[in-house]
Amino acid sequence: MSFTFSIISSDENARRGEITTHHGKIQTPAFMPVGTYGAVKAISPQVLEEIGADVILSNTYHLMERPGIETIKQLGGIHNFMGWTRPLLTDSGGYQVFSLAKKRKISEKGVDFFSPLNGNQLHLSPETCMQHQMDLGVDIAMVLDECTPYPVEHQIAKDSMELSMRWASRCRDSFLSEKNALFGIIQGGVYQDLREESLSCLIKSEFEGYAIGGLSVGETKEEMNAVVAYISPKMPQEKPRYLMGVGTPLDIIHSVQQGIDLFDCVLPTRNARNGYLFTSKGVVKIRNSHNRIYEGPIDDACLCYTCRNFSRSYLHHLDKTKEMLGSTLNSIHNLFFYIELMSNIRLAIEEGKLKIFAEKFFKNWDNDINS
Amino acid sequence: MSFTFSIISSDENARRGEITTHHGKIQTPAFMPVGTYGAVKAISPQVLEEIGADVILSNTYHLMERPGIETIKQLGGIHNFMGWTRPLLTDSGGYQVFSLAKKRKISEKGVDFFSPLNGNQLHLSPETCMQHQMDLGVDIAMVLDECTPYPVEHQIAKDSMELSMRWASRCRDSFLSEKNALFGIIQGGVYQDLREESLSCLIKSEFEGYAIGGLSVGETKEEMNAVVAYISPKMPQEKPRYLMGVGTPLDIIHSVQQGIDLFDCVLPTRNARNGYLFTSKGVVKIRNSHNRIYEGPIDDACLCYTCRNFSRSYLHHLDKTKEMLGSTLNSIHNLFFYIELMSNIRLAIEEGKLKIFAEKFFKNWDNDINS
User: Fold this and answer.
1) Domain spanning B31-222: CATH 3.30.70.120
2) Looking at this predicted complex, what is its ipTM?
3) pLDDT-based confidence at A280, cuts 50/70/90?
4) Do B51 and B304 touch, CB atoms closer than 8 A?
5) Any idea where the domains of chain A sit in the sequence?
6) What is the pLDDT of residue B368?
7) A345, A362, B83, B185 — which has fewest CB within 10 A?
8) Number of Cβ pairs closer than 8 Å across A and B?
9) pTM above 0.95, yes or no
10) Nearest residue, CB atoms, A66 vs list B41, B76, B320
């Protein structure tokens, strides 16, 4: 196993760590930009490296639909296919089957569903899901899980979680890799007892890391934070902890304080394409008429390519004229902001100052700094 | 005047030259990527520089509509606005008024028209057109001309050309710049006598360069080539010659052989977005199912970022999934191909081998190499 995790320092519940994979190291806490179809939207691998992304995420479900796992396997795996040389994690597809697929039928065996894209009948079982991720050659694979809907009664959440746990165990048994890691996913909805039971179950299978899944499905921010605050400190100390699909800069800081090491979210890239740009003081909406004539950059303090070279006026203009370059420059900025945020978080942990850092960040934050 | 042109060597009618501008040098024959709205579609200035573009073109007409010339002036000019440090030429807007504007009224004074974008009433006269290009701070400005339609009777073409010539003279009088150049535009449709008369007229005003305008408006390729072959050798030897809006690699090679020094065309970038990719052997259509599983690059011999890092399979996939990155990677390749083509043309002229180069290129060319 070439996958290892070590904790360099800690600050209350927060940890500063380092993951080593077959494709290089990941400094944690880390944020993974999302490359759904094997491409981070509007950003080349070269630019991603320049921005300083250690690791990215791609989606098994989407890659199954297009171009197909077999095609990527034939072309030497996902790294070779997309020209990305650093670590890569794939989602198992469980969440997407829940949120995107048509006419899904879940059984003990797995899930049958139809692609909304082309109507093709598709199937995912714990075993095929592992095979897909092995064929892709990803550094970190995720177990297949059933994503429990919200709101849901305790008994249904329990049944769903227990199915996911049986699947997790089958995933562990069928994931055969000397060099890559498999993470288990804690389910149980907003019920603390179920989350704890799920975690106990997973620990028996000895995964290389543990994730909190099934959040951001409709529950309130308070409910989400409560789940993270409750379960995170109980997760194995010596393994990476991953909070799936989260979130805003505030969510990330809050969750790092609960001991989370890994994050992924479409927010920086999706918001970039919609002209919502992150700064240390909050969100700049580039479409705001305030930015029509504005000679300064998005953020005076930012050192990204976009801020070093372009005014808000220019970005406002690119947005108005629907130039693709606008999406690219905005995405560069937002991803740089996230990567830089993680770097500052790591430094704050090393210096034992995360609490001060967080308080200052929360205090300065404004959801629309032009309003 | 910091604008100069010198001929380094020649090969029959073809010339290998160098233009010096306030923003640096242009090696000729040169191709100018098109950045209509002050942005080459899907490509950042950094990438354009890496590709090796000496000079780009932008459109006065489009910049008048969005963001407005005054805005760019306030932001320090077009170079500062778009983050481009090398030479830049603007089209005068004459052609776009002809092809895009609504309800245009042409008079001796100038042209009134309505923006199809927002219904705003706009006006271009020789004097305002020069003021706009001076405000933008472009290295090479173009005179305002009336683009003669096709087909058209001799008398109408003559009247139109004569109006353009009176406008050209007013442009010369009102273009006040110590450092930037103004080019005249030869009109006259497909009539050789009118083209010659137009050229004589322009020469009296002593422009820093001369362009052939009013082509690619519906005439046959033979008619276009005949105009270029007739008028190009008669254009002043010691000034740059610019064939506007042309064209395919074959058109460019053919026109260089007639003595043309400058080209611009949307073809490499527009075709890139549609998956038509140029190679030394002809056109690769990336959407072709032949490229679904194809491990090699677009062109084995190409050294562009795209060909060095990505397979045709990946580009086929990005096209299918409508990922913006596909447009970017395809545009990088096509622009690199054009820039490289010009570099090879210059070398062939220096070595006195342009005829052999052209014959070989024409012989190898295939409009769809997978068919």
Assistant:
1) no
2) 0.97
3) confident
4) yes
5) 4-265, 272-364
6) 84
7) A362
8) 112
9) yes
10) B320
